[in-house]
Amino acid sequence: MHESEDYQGLSEYPYGDLAAPHSVRLLNLRPGGETASEIVCELIEENLDTTKVEYEALSWSWGTDPWDETIRIHHKGVDYFVKAPLSLVSALRALRSRSAIRTLWIDAICINQQHSDEKNKQVPMMNKIYESATSVCIWLGEGDDDSKMALNFIKHEVLKLQGFDELCDNEAASPKWRAMLNLMERPWFSRRWVVQEIALANDAMIYCGKETIPWKDFADAVQLFVEVETATHRLSEVMKKDPKFYHVPGWFEYVSALGASLLVDATGTLFRVSKDKAREPLLSLEYLVSSLSVFEAVQPQDTIYALLAIAKDTAPEAVIRGATQSSVTPARAQLNAWAYRYRMRKPYKVDYKQRLFDIYKEFILFSIRQSDETRALDIICRPWAPAPEKKGSKKGKRKVRAEPKIIKEAEETRKMPSWIPRLSGAAYAMFPHPNGEMRVGRQNADPLVGLPSLSQRNYSAAGTRKVDLSTLRFKTRSTYYSMYVSGFILDRVARVEVASQGGNIPEEWVVEVGWEDEDDDPPQEFWRTLVADRGRHGRNPPTYYARACRESILKGLQSGSLNTSELINNGRCSVVAEFFRRVQAVIWNRSLMRTENDHLGIVRKDVQEGDLICILYGCSVPVILRRKRKTIADLEKEKKEDEEEFEKMKEVATIRIQRGYRESVERRARLREIRLARERQEAIQREEEQLADTEGSLPANQEESQPVPEAKSLRSMNGAGKSKPKPPKPRPKPPSMLSPRLKPKNEPAHPQAPRERRNTPKPEAEPSHPADEPRRTGTDRTGTDRTGTDRTGTDLSDDAFPLEDDPKHFYYELIGECYVHGMMDGEAIKFQNDYDIKAQTFELR
């Protein structure tokens, strides 16, 4: 029990250890009136594997409220207390029955928040907890007039399909649509864990203050809302006419990017349900993490962990192990099917104590191994990773749900590498509106790689070249992390124009392509580059895009740039609006560039002249890499770290070889004993058979006159009628050093090392790579020091250091993906073959 101040003479509730691996605590909420101030509960323990118990699971938003409220816990005749935030206490008051006990599972109370080991075991069970609950209670928070209007609007108007079209054109309904939008923007809809909680729920009910609505009804209303606005933008048009809403254009422009919209869409596509109501996951972990980036995770690890239970290719390790063990319970048929479904998915370890970088790296490696090998590296171009919390930051100081606290290293000196794409690069975010409300809006262009869907593939810049798993590896250094990938240098950035602001087209872009006469058709490379040579959903661009470009751009450049939002919201042509929506999705916060080989393209706004345009094998789009030379100090440090790592590997290998040798000798000795025992037994049987034959062949008169010789047993002799077994060979001494194949190239083999160890396990070392070999600092024949200096100690300039030089002297920063016109569909591979461009390994940092 943790020490704390007494509450009215009560002590803090003493959490004990759970009795079984799949045991959970459930909360019996005692009845009371709505205005009763005190919440009284009882905690009970149940095993979900052996007991059929009815309970409801609470899904709520922890928020930032301090844990100052108190809940009374009655346990074995003694009253205790636990602390809770006001939002949870409000939820319990709303859910409390007036006359009966209500059994709930609530993460904040049913899991010991002070016990990290219990959290690590209970968090992977979240899916089973929500799946086993009779219903999930969704608490959106306290109600107000706005939420009451929204819920009544949904129940009595939106779901009445016969009048839906008229409702969409009714200006009087504008306040109701806005109230519904506000409801969809409540904090609960931005939580990442709610995706799993709702997807696994057998039934769900929304509670907002005193108002309730079934989740299914709410989901249908959201889908109708999103569909009509996305397809026709009718609701935004109606809102513009209402003076109360400031004549703001595009009020619902990005409603499809809201958490509520994505949640409703996701829960409808996550599973295929069979006749026996078994759920079969349909989406990969990579797809879920990439597509649900709008959902926030208080702890960065939950970006991945919160989606494990609903992914088709993995599940929490504890869940798979538990599913296998559960197949021996009495309800064999149902649980066997459940266990089979989980055994088909690869286990994924949940460990909140692990370093954040390692969690991210393992997810990237998992995604690469599970993906189509020709686009496996797309994961390093798609924004999904929240940045780690900075020391001293107020963010994350609030208490979070049942996930354990991060145990960070004492000294976190490494920064996140460029090959872990930041979530800050996501297309959408929440912004404050002029009237004080928060609204979702675009902050960046859409990723060119798109989502990892089997049915859609935007580009194939590397053709059919697969990710090179022989060179793909990761390296952890003292101050940075490296990823090694294969590919080749396609081109170099020659010029970068001013970046697009808010999706506008700068005048400099038009000048760059030499389009001056508005009567002329726009250069094909220009309009195709503006839309990245694709239309909606990754299809080929419609031919009328060129006409829409010609009729709009030159006429709208009087102010120095073309305001695409103005043409979308106030233009009278839906075709032009569609064209510029696609343009915004490509150029927002990006720049136009020209390559040294005269290709036009779109890049991130922080790209610089001289940056390299590269093709990575297994990546569907070109990428921008910034080459940086390692300093002499860097090379010396790497050499020292490599030597230290090799020594550690050698020690580990030696121990394992010695252990394997001992086990091999002991195994041979046991087999020898078994063989000798079997030979003795066989000899005894032969002797007994010979004795029986001798007795049966003697004459009757001799049987009485001649005594039968006493049988000699091998139990008391060393092999009667058989030569004595040879004594075992003397046991050789175990090796004290590595076998020759594990030694450095220049180190001779130990003379006493055994010549053959077929049963000796190999050390678990990382694959060798030139970048891992100890650096040599001697001079070559040209008089140049191998670390990049001449004999006088002068550092060589970049111009004097061509790209073909030793790649160990360079590393690369991944700036991001890019569009290069004419090089997006396999043409780059032909270019490589035509000009005999050699492949190389890039060390990304």
TrEMBL record:
Supply the name of the protein: Heterokaryon incompatibility domain-containing protein
Q: Where is the composition biased (Basic residues)?
A: 723-732
- One family from Pfam that matches here is HET
Q: So which domain of life are we looking at?
A: Eukaryota
Q: List compositional bias (Basic and acidic residues) regions by residue number.
A: 744-793
Keywords of the record: Coiled coil
InterPro entries given for it? HET, HetReg/Transcr_Mod
Residue intervals of the Heterokaryon incompatibility domain: 55-197
Which residue ranges are recorded for the region named Disordered? 685-804
Could you list the residue ranges forming a coiled coil in this record?
A: 625-652
